[in-house]
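Handoff note, outgoing to incoming analyst
You'll be picking up this chain. Sequence as last confirmed:
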Amino acid sequence: MPSFDVVSKPNLVELRNAVDQANKEIGTRFDFKGSDARIESRAEAKESDLTLYADDEFKLGQMRDVLIGKLAKRQVDVRFLDLGGKPEKIGGDKLKLTVKVKNGIEPALAKKIVQTVKDSRLKVTAGIQGDAVRIQGAKRDTLQETIALLRAKVSDVPLSFENFRD
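Most recent structure output, in case you need it:
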């Protein structure tokens, strides 16, 4: 039976390259001269996050803009980043901002995807499997219609479709 998986995970290699390019630009920019501004990334099997260090709130905002620009150039969707955190003081005037990198589909979104597929009346079945949603159908064409439907309906998170099998 043909099937595919709906997942939401960033390309970690491109993410690391974007962070390296952002660090290189921050190191050479005149407005960051003499400051301890840097971006550090921590990537593990399931969780990864970025930590931005800056001297003040303005430089932190500038670093965020540089990072978003580099991510856009590397075709990494910015919706993978949770930029809503508050900066915390780490001593003196220094600030630290931890940015979570979203990986996987959360259970509430997975339920929404399954419900969207069921409401579409397409002849496919959808089931939640961990942090992915597996969709199975009798015909390949209905699976492709399902992919088009999910691209149109779900815009909260960047979705990708893997393991397309006949």
